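User: Thanks for the earlier help. One more: Isopenicillin N synthase family oxygenase. Can you show the sequence and predicted structure together?

Assistant: Of course, both are below.
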Amino acid sequence: MTAPTSNTVPNTTQPSEAVRIAIAEAKELPILDVGPYLAGVPGALEQLGADVRLIQENLGFFAIVNHGIPQALIDESFKQTARLFDIPMEEKLKHRVGYHHQGYLPPKSSILQSKVIQEKIALNTKKDTNAAWLFMRNRTADDPKVRGNVRHRGLNQWPESLPEFKKALYEYQTSMEKLGQRLLPIYARALNLRGDYFDSMFKAPEYYQRCAYYHPEENMEEGQYALAPHSDGSFLTLLPMTPVPGLEVMTPAKEWLKVRYVKDALIVNTGQVLNRLSNDHFIATPHRVVNPPMKRYALTFFFYPDDDANVGPIPECMAPGEKAKYDSRSFYDFFVPYLDDLYHYNDPNFMKEVEPAGVATAG
């Protein structure tokens, strides 16, 4: 780290023995109990900061318990998501994803690939078998970004036939947003920053909700995935665990760790935003979903800073003489090319057909 400033507060707490063992063995995700921290127990924040620092410098994935999100809400959201993918295809296609990357994404309609993963693993050339329904922060028609047709900031496409889904998912999203904000001090202390360091970047945070359906595919091609290897673009990602297997995480040894189900737990990982802010000290770990043995649903919540937040490297996160590995830019200026680099649609004319005239396409 650089010389101390008003933003730096060294965290001298050592990682817990359980986290050290989990990282050394790399056989299961570390499990952190955030209940004491959320309850304001003295010392809990510093301990979590030390644990997360070790995790983020090595594996990049962990699970949290006692997180405060009611399990009944998570269960209802899973139930409504299953119903979402059961509605007739005709209705789903009326809401097909387009210029704003909001709406229904049919199975085998895109190839997930990015330069980051190509450099770390290989170039993916196969269509993902999963289906998804994609939501950004919920906005109203009079929102300035909606009126201005700001890309990825349009109106969400809620299915008319499932009003219960919208009610459950919106409550789920607002609950996850609040939890994401409550976790910010942990990451600040993990980076030896003041606990409130990230507050100014998350005054009106953005998020991206991916409801996914992974069906057992009988005719998988060689090198094909339910969801191909990728790293998230988030500051952090929150994912309720499901007993149906499929998620795999790349370990430091570049082996694939099969994630074990932990009842009532949320998976937490960080993406390329925090990777940039930490100047590569906190990793954005590649992960994938393989063909599941039965129907599998996911409620992935990607938590982002404000659109105008600077996501260039934080000076205090660089050692003396260390050069910045990323440029300074707003989160929004990072997010648009990130999605364009990641999602490549089968039909090259699809985005052109739905976008406003004169605006660049995706993929």
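User: Great, one quick takeaway?

Assistant: The CA atoms of residues 297 and 335 lie 25 Å apart.
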